[in-house]
Amino acid sequence: MKLDILAFGAHPDDIELSCAGTLIKAVKAGKKVGIIDMTEGQLGTRGTPELRKQEAANSAKIMGVSVRDNLGMMDGYFKNDDENRIKIIQKIRQYRPDIIVANVPQDRHPDHGRASQMVSEAWFYAGLVKIETEWDGKKQEAFRPNRVFYYMQHFSYDFSFVVDTSNEMDQKIEAIKAFKSQFHDPNSKEPETVLTAPHFIEHIKNRDSELGYAIGAKYGEGFLSQRKIFGVNNLFDIK
User: Fold this and answer.
1) How large is the angle between the packed helices 169-177 and 20-28, nearest 10 degrees?
2) How would you write the pLDDT of the chain (239 residues) with one tens digit per residue?
3) Which of 35, 80, 84, 207 would be a feasible disulfide site paired with 68, CB 3.0-4.6 Å?
4) Does any domain span residue 239?
5) Domain extent at residue 108
6) Domain for residue 234, yes or no?
7) Furthest-apart CA pair in the chain: how many Å?
């Protein structure tokens, strides 16, 4: 299956908390979108990997994405090594997306930065014909997507651009809440975390509201780009 956008997240729910609005908007525009969770969230304080897997599937349905895969790397312990980079290269070559989005290079959770670096390297290596991979017993062709963008999670950045997600916010929040084990539940007896605070979802909305305000919209999602200069046809293309 050929995808337009392939989104990588170190953990199930990374995508939902960061760039779900952008992906939902792309789906609504007729684009094919896929998500690759790199770990199963094995070290998550609440829930289990099995439960997170079901929650991820439920969220994928809400967002309308075409595919959601999990690479089965070990949460907290995965390394940026040949074995794991090959797993990512295989997915890039399998889905041949035009655009990749990934965790930011530096963030509160150490896994996020490590995942970002690994995806960045795999993006480049996926285009090298002398790195050979197979999928379903068949040799894969080398392929390098046009662009890689990095979505915001905990730390704020001087973003390269912000996507207007005003019309997608309600659906984004619904996708986030599909991860019921991870967020506020007054009946839960599991330990409290940063994510389980009653006001956490409101914080996400406030953050996106600030980004939206910067571009004259109600809500927005910020991204970093490897490429610092973009080509435009004329000045009126810049909003």
Assistant:
1) 120
2) 999 999 999 999 999 999 999 999 999 999 999 999 999 989 888 889 899 999 999 999 999 999 999 999 999 999 999 999 999 999 999 999 999 999 998 888 889 999 999 999 999 999 999 999 999 999 999 999 999 999 988 767 788 999 999 999 999 999 999 999 888 878 787 888 877 888 889 999 999 999 999 999 999 999 999 887 777 777 677 77
3) 35
4) no
5) 5-227
6) no
7) 57
